[in-house]
Please model this.
Amino acid sequence: MNHAAEPGPGVSAAPTAVIADDERLMREQLRARLAEVWPELQIVGEARNGIEAVELVDTLRPDIVFLDIRMPGLTGVDAARRIAQLPPRPGDDDERLPEIVFITAYDQYAVEAFEQGVADYVLKPAEPDRLRLTVDRIRGRLAARDSDDAAPAGPHLQQLLHRLAAQLNPGGKPNYLQWIQATVGQAIQMIAVDEVLFFISDEKYTRVQTPQVEALIRKPIKELVDELDPAQFWQIHRSTLVNVKAVAGVTRDFRGRQIVAVRGHPEKLEVSRSYTGLFKGM
Model:
């Protein structure tokens, strides 16, 4: 695998991408078409399945990842959900997510992703005109990332991925968690999910906070995201989920960061940059 050279002083790094598709010919065709419509884009890795895609993105941290929506072992949607939960690199506590582009032969999945504006798509086979439209949209989002007016895609992407996962498995209705079995002091207690104000994770445990109780579980946020109703619990930081019904208000601190006030609890929760789009109107 070739890695791009480091840019010299005053030179902007070329955008980088990973392509994931279980069909080699499709990977080769997309690589060739991208070279036509976006010659400066550097393809830094190729994956044959969703698991390889997550590993490559974790290692290479590309700007864009092209994911076949249907792959063996781990679908493109499931891979995107795992990518969205990758921890930031050491020293960077707020790394942006890569732009997600789904590769699909099924237009019904693609249209919803495209209309949401938080992910894009390429229909198989990749036609130059459609690919140019995708490239123009990605270029615009990459250029806007450092702007204060840019709306990070993180929270909206998570909600979109939940819906796409349901479309890929239409017979399986999601069974969201209703109860949490947690440690309170020396005892095990059952806590109704509806009573939880927020979840905050550290390296080993996740704190479950209700108006009356502080409890601990060993389940990390990246697993809870998939098990809780995304309409009720919003991820506002890589380590924090908050119950929407418990949000009393959002303010900004002296550094311009969004801070969530919680009903029934004095703690203030920081919103990381990747999730500020949730409260864009506030």
Q: What stands out?
A: The first strand starts at residue 16 and ends at 20. The chain has seven helices and 15 strands. Confidence is low (pLDDT under 50) at residues 1-12, 148-152. The domain at 179-279 is CATH 2.40.50.1020 (OB fold (Dihydrolipoamide Acetyltransferase, E2P)).
